[in-house]
Amino acid sequence: MFPKYSFRLSSKPLVPLTVLAAAMLAGGCSDNSSGSDNAADDNGTTTSLSGKAADGYLAGARVCLDLNNNAACDDGEPTATTSAGGSYSLEGVTQEQIDNSPLVVEIIVGETIDEDNPGVAIDKTYTLTAPAGSAFISPLTTMVQNEIKENGLSPDEAKANIQARLGTDLDPTEDYVAGSDDGDSGEEFQRLHKVAQVTRAVMQKNIELVETVVEESGVSKEDLTALIVEQVLAALDDIQQAIEDAGDGFDADGLAGSDELQGTRLDPSKVEEQLEERRDRREATAANLAALLTDGDGLNFFEAFEEDDGLMFGYGNVQADGEGVISITQYGYDVEGDSWVAMSEEGDQRQDCFLGNGGWQCFSEDDETVSTDGNNVRILRGNLSFAEEIISGQQIDLTDKPLGAYLDYPYQAVIDPRARFTAGAQGYLLTFTRTNDVFELYRDNVESVNDCWGGEAIEGNTWAPTDTWCNNVFVHTGDGNHETDGDAATTLAQLISATAATNPQYRVDLGGIDLYGDHSQHVVELVEGGVANIYRLERSSMGESEDLIPFGSTEWRIQTIETKEVLTIDLPPGIAVRADYDMGAKPLLAVVDGYVRAGEMMPAGGRSDTQWVFNGAGREQIKAAFDYALLQPLAECEIEDNEDSTLTDFATYASGCSTVDFGDGDVAGKSFFLGDGAFNFTQDGNGRYQGEIDDGDFVSLAFTWTINEEGYLVLNTQHTKDGVTEYLRMTAAKIESNARQISLVTFGQDSTDSSTLNESTGEVSGEVWDIR
């Protein structure tokens, strides 16, 4: 929708994109159709659906057709129990049910056996899902189904996305257990099996971690499973790297609890807020965007991005006047002035070029008019009817909702975690509908070619812009010699290889094009016949070495549109998003003014934005809660390694770290999050810890807390395992705190005899915890 800008406080103008373009779109249209091997008549005749369930093959698990799509096996839904080898057969189902209902596997704790660990009943629950009509259900199909349900992808799009994220040519919905014996692909199936095993272990640990939250708030299994799977997907690269690093010492459960995969863990102190935000998305009601844009404070969006000198923060306001002319005012946060500064667009000549009316039509990015269509808004760009876009929206009342839960992650780091919206704040989710396929190129339209790329281009060199478009695609010959690369392409044929490269090792071994974004680079090799081979290019931190990692294949095609040839690539959604393409968009190449230019093709249809935007009241409340100083982490007091320290030693360390007294206001009603778990403090001296303890178990423990005469915070609890009760105490001294963090010196003690706890020894540590 809104601009992706460069919030620099300098004479350089911002980069305004279309007012309501789909720049932030992350959704798509869903198509749940799927086939079955056992067809039935259209008159309702029943049939059966057979398949297998696995992490390793699961025996004694519950399987069902999820008729109401809530990721749970409910009464009345066709259900079966898996047998040896993970096999199941759902009897008495109709073809319509098979084609339209996802599958669910529920672990029966104490009964289900994972044949990766024969004879041992599973003792921790988890749930698996798979797209409608699947013959195999696993942690990997759960990822695929999550993409269908949560991001609105079609089954094929979802499968391609997960396939790309896994970096594999294999189908993630195939039986990787059986495939492990395949002569050609067995090794890769074994790797996917390991990814599935770690995913399962992560799911179990996260469910255990937030078990109390679920019980107390009545959270649906559907929402919790989706939240966990999204966390896994966000850390999928880390999971795969950890598996590779583990080598022959691979242990799925050990990896799931390791520091390397800390990014896979949910924060139990934030789960309720995250789940509430998910419910709000479902319960939002239709919004009158037409009135919002033309009256009052318009729509407001907040974005942040990384620059070399740190995170940059900004927001924008979109309004339309009585004549239907849209205006965007963009603001950047001035760190030195501690204020929001309106960003000038003076001198910005950038253009969008759309294909239509017989050729490429270029116009200023802000050449847009708006009209109303009931509650919706119609945007016309460049006065071109084929570039029409309809924007509709849904809204919720944000009153008393946690402010950070409705902002993207970078903004959460500079918002007081206690801040809540107050009366008047409204949040909106937007849907953009294009009536036609849109083919779009980008043109900087600077005064001189020397102004391209922020003035850093060197005219006349290879790898340099040729004209004031500042948009060239460069030739890679793929002959292994970098000296033959770098000319600006003048034909599409220069980018297409006659045959696919054999075992390419370096970028110079491939032709095709480069895609950049999200701290990553991908290479798309375009091979005659329409095959596009995708590789991820990884370079060492100093750039002295590089690796090409195969990321699967897709298709490309050349079409003639409005008498002009265009080349489009069917990029998997996961790669598209990483390369900064909008969800559903396809990379586009076309020859204009003598050179190949890059852009994107956006297909007709609707795409929903996952980012919340706000009315004027919401905007002002977010600005009031913004505190740039929170971005600077507190320092951790350095304490030498120690294991058998006493309480006296702790006091010495605390004094050396210049600690100050705790007050009730530092603790009561707050949550402290320390990576492995969270301490939740009530006002009455009680609390609950949810997280990991020293033996690796995830627990939910009630504790008491007090502030003693020395100004230390003292927590006491106990934990019973295998019939043995262990008494636990943590003593903490405060160094400093802000709204987001607290720096501490901590001392842990434990004993099986409560009477000797005071004298027990332990470790003193300097730590920084997050405050929720």
Structure description:
It is a single chain. The protein is an alpha+beta fold and 772 residues long. Helices cover 20% and strands 33% of the residues. It is built from 17 helices and 39 strands. α2 packs across α7. The protein is globular.
Which properties best describe this structure?
single chain; 772 residues; alpha+beta; 11-stranded mixed sheet; 8-stranded antiparallel β-barrel; 17 helices; 33% strand; disordered N terminus
Helix/strand layout:
Layout: E1 46-53, E2 58-59, E3 62-65, E4 79-81, E5 87-94, H1 95-100, E6 103-106, E7 113-114, E8 127-130, E9 136-137, H2 139-151, H3 155-166, H4 176-179, H5 186-209, H6 211-217, H7 221-234, H8 236-246, H9 252-256, H10 271-283, E10 285-286, H11 289-294, E11 299-307, E12 310-320, E13 326-334, E14 339-342, E15 351-356, E16 359-364, E17 368-373, E18 376-381, E19 389-397, H12 409-412, E20 426-434, E21 438-443, H13 452-455, E22 496-497, E23 513-517, E24 520-527, E25 531-539, E26 546-561, E27 564-569, H14 573-578, E28 586-592, E29 595-602, E30 605-608, E31 613-614, H15 616-625, H16 647-656, H17 664-667, E32 671-673, E33 677-681, E34 686-692, E35 698-707, E36 713-721, E37 724-737, E38 741-751, E39 764-771
Parallel strand pairs: 1-9, 22-24
Antiparallel strand pairs: 1-5, 2-7, 3-4, 3-6, 6-8, 10-19, 11-12, 12-13, 13-14, 15-16, 15-21, 17-18, 18-19, 19-20, 20-30, 20-31, 21-29, 23-24, 24-25, 25-26, 26-27, 27-28, 28-29, 32-33, 32-39, 33-34, 34-35, 35-36, 36-37, 37-38, 38-39
Helix pairs in contact: 2-3, 2-7, 5-7
